[in-house]
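note to self: dont lose this again. the chain is below, predicted strucutre after it. 588 aa total, dont forget to put it in the shared folder this time
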Amino acid sequence: MMLLSRFWYAILAVALAAAVALLYVSIHQHNRLRESDTRMIIDHDRDIVDWYLRIDARRRLDALAIVSIDDQIRNGIVKANAQDKVAGDVREPIKKRLGELATKFSGLIKDEGRGGQNPVMLFAVDARGRVVGHVNFDRASSVKDETFELGGFPVVADALHGWLRDDTWVFDRDTIYRVVARPVVAAEGAPPAGAVVALRRVDDNFARNIVERTEAPVVFYVASPDGDAVKVVARAVPDKADVSFDGFTIDQKMLTADKTYMENGASSLKQIGPMTMAFSRLIGMSWESGAGYAVARKVTAIADPSALLAGADETDKKAIPVLLVVGIALMAILIGIGATVVEHSMPLNKLVREGRRFAKGEQDSLPLGRLAGPYRRIGQDVNEGVERVIAKGGGASRKAADLEQIIGPVPNAPQMSAFSFGMAPEPSPAAPSSKPSSPGGDLFPNLAPAAPTPSSKPAVPPPKPAMPAPSVAAVSQPVAAINDEEEEDDATMVQKIPDELMAAAKSGESRAIESADEMMQWRQTFDEFVAMRQKCGEPTTGLSFEKFQVQLRKNKEQLVKQYNCKRVKFTVYEKEGKAALKATPIKD
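---
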């Protein structure tokens, strides 16, 4: 398993995923904060515009004083009060003087609009509310001087009673006027002789004046409660604003459905396209006419990382710690390359070197002990392929043999041979038990005493019924060993303990102990092999551990010489439904 490089790939993948997740979290946090800030800015803009309208009304009232105290205006109004029908010789001087004062008035408040094309509209009203004279009125063609009067408007009526007032008028549901009125006093302590009124039409120039002073995009509209459409009458945005009112429309139902707007005159924030807006009703006579204004801001949300990079300017790019970013990238590259070299390049080069030695004939197989990872499997496959080619050509096999290649085929039924298990013998007279003659103690305490050996045997052994294969428990019992020259059918004896085992136990020499340990492992391998044959349904009679370990020793010597290894490990496994044995060279 190549874990280092693959583990590094996993680390890089997790780091990349974490960076992307962090990026999206940052984008969401930015959008949330930007939206919150935009809401605060919109509320601030609405308050600023409201305060501007209030201050603008006060400035207009102050500037209107030059008209209310003018002698020609005051004297003309007094003359008009004494006439049932205002004569022309009274109207004309007042109208002329109002024209002069209108220019002076506009100069005081700097509200002519760009280019001075929108001077203020002025009216002189007598005590009965009749318009004695007017100038710059954009609807003059629709009125007659003889019947034109303003006394019915609350703002004018209050001025005739001595009050300074401002108001907002709506004419024909498509025009908004800002109105201020002052009383005209002819004598100290006397009631007002009349009033002067100044009007300013709310148009794009008026909205632009607000924008220049507040930097707040603003739009004025008339939304009649009994109508089904909202008419936009004025609009303006700052020069570098990202808000545009081109093609902008307002849904009447959106406003009427807002309870806060209908009752208190200030709506909640509304999202109209890319803009967040707040609507406010104008206080005065225009309240019932549906006049109002709205401020807007565009919430610039970041949709994805590409939009984040697209919105970055040079200062943002300069804030990147280039050295740190490049250093992290180089470190990651070096670690990844190092892991790849250790786990891929070096083992591959080792396989290449061993393959060249194999091709030159310096070795007859690939040394699996020198290979690692998947290359060990490649070497194993190559060795097995070579063995098959040799076997097909009739050559001698060089691989570790299984048990049948070592000790030959195992007989299928009990018979007289040099290898057999001690089966249940016929009852015989009891004989004194014998003990192992080897000194040094019994290394196999589970071994049973030796069975008695009969003194004679019949010339022809009687037939015996076929015996069932012994169970695993039976196999773990001591195996009977029969001499090759003696063909005694039922004679059994306790397995002889190898001399090297006894000598190792007695002397304690390390090399002897290692040999004894190997013998114990072979004994365990033999028991596992017998158990595997039973599991696969193969016969187990005729097997002998003495012959088994002799053949294993020969096979070990051959492998040690061939592979220059220190020891050989034998492993039992199942191959094609049969018990098999493999030998593996071990270097250390």
